[in-house]
Records
---
Amino acid sequence: MAFLIVIVCILLLMVLVTLAKCNVFVAFLIVSALAGWWLGMPLQSITGAMQKGIGDTMGGLLIIIILGAMLGKLVAESGAARQIAQTLIRLFGTRYIQWALLVAGFVIGIPLYYGVGFVLLVPLIFSVVYQYKLPAVYIGLPTLAALSVTHGFLPPHPSPVALVTQFHANMGLTLVYGLIVAVPAIIVAGPLFARYLKKIPASPSPLFQAQENQAQQLPGAFNSFFTALLPVLLLVITTGLLHAAPANSQLYGFLSFAGDASVVMLCCLLIATFSLGIAQRKSLKDIMNIYAESVKDIAMVMLIIAGSGALKEVLANSGVSARIAMAMSSWHIPVLVLGWLMAAVIRASIGSATVAGLTAAGMMAPFIATGQVDPNLMVLSVGAGSLMFSHVNDAGFWMFKEYFNISIKDTFLSWSVMETIVGIMGLLGVLALNALITH
């Protein structure tokens, strides 16, 4: 009966979001309250559980996600993202320009929020398409595949960071594993798959042509790359040093503090404030305005994550999560595959990768508590499932269709298939890593 109630709650969430067009945060609160009532929780404890879930979820995420958004916005506004792309195009040359844009999408995608990165990269893609007379989808899809992978797999993006918190994983180790899984996923879903898309007709809509500020003085190439990649470098370095340091030593304590994702992001933002702000002759007031604008970009994402925390806590307090985990353990499906499958089904139903990942995380949390699976790999497995089969209920589907001005059929054949390949390759990469780690 409890399992049926949870299924009904997830279906209700899907109906509220897709058919009723309800705000996702409000939908999560409604479903959380109803779930608590249906599962027999005392009425007076339901709101307390929801508040605790929101607090516990957001407490570990707020600093990282907001600082990450501020850094990404500054990378975009300062021209560093454009400098990175132009430098890579010069380095790779015309023959490998598709690979240059792919690498640009990956590098730019690490600090930038997905929607910002999408809007920033599309005009660059079309400028290359027009200059070199190349097929737009063939050139552009690998770039957006790289952007999608960073969004689903790699901290400091909101969904991976939230999953790291919910599964009590290690941010740095998840990032290292994520980079390993991301590379083959991008290559297969990008350049290899794009070979079959050369004949898809596409042309940019003038409505979406961004006007570049040619008078803007771009930061230097080293400055741009270094600042954009600094969070990755610091997290990887501190994670490696932490594993090498003697436990309970002063060095271990210092590295634990310095390697904390919140401290890393704060240090990176302070450095970026100087390197991409003050050093580029921006006033401190202008830089702070950029940071204030960045919060608006992620406000809704933060609310979605908060809402998912409320539902997770209600399911945990009612005891149904543990009962579902016990029941699912008899299905003889590997736990990593199960997490991926749950996220994939919710993603196909709702459309939002963030909602899919966080809803699935609430179901899979008991498996982590029993130590049945590496929490870092579970973050990546659920993240990969949350990217599966983007279609008409996903904003990314329509953004790709309208920006590239192609038919719905061709959008399915290109964008939807690309996202599905990313999801499948992500799962295969996670399973391969798990085999290496456990043997």
---
Amino acid sequence: MPSRPPAAAVRTEVAVPLRFSDGFGTVARVITFDGLVDGREHLALGLGGRVTDGDPARRRGAHPLVRLHSECLTGDVFGSQRCDCGPQMREAVERIAEVGGYLMYLRQEGRGIGLYGKLDAYVLQDLGLDTYEANLALGFRADARDYTVAAQMIHALGLGRVALLSNNPDKADQLGRLDVDVTDRVPTGVHWSPSNARYLTTKAVRGSHTFDPPARAVRLEA
């Protein structure tokens, strides 16, 4: 049975104009919260129209599009090519702005192991381990992310039902256990580069992410 997490509440909301390096821009409603169970400063970025359970658009069946995006300093800020985090965030902002919804920016660097832990894992990856093996070798779980705070934020925003922008089935599974009705899982693009080919293949093969890695990436992994 789903179990609703402790209640959180919206703390502040402020408009922030966004502009990406390719020229795309939009305005986000940046929302902060009180009562999140881990005490961290997670954010929700409201994009496009306001679609909540009480809105006319919601009653017509248009559930807000939601992306759970785990913080990645190296990819989001510095443009690292070792992962696809930066391009996924850029894609998500535009797609959500088109239809209305939220990007949840979650302070879960390195799949929940922290920035230094992630960089330590990079060292092991350069010695031949994949991303999951490196986390385990450092004494962490392969993926240590917990989406309880994301569910708290979703409930605080009055969203009983959401369409989830993700290739990761674990996100939908965790939200479902936390009393969030995921009506649809919308796939994201595959942002392949020579530098992240093995990373993407590992996500598909070991992490059960629902996309087919490019043939070049599969050959590199093999």
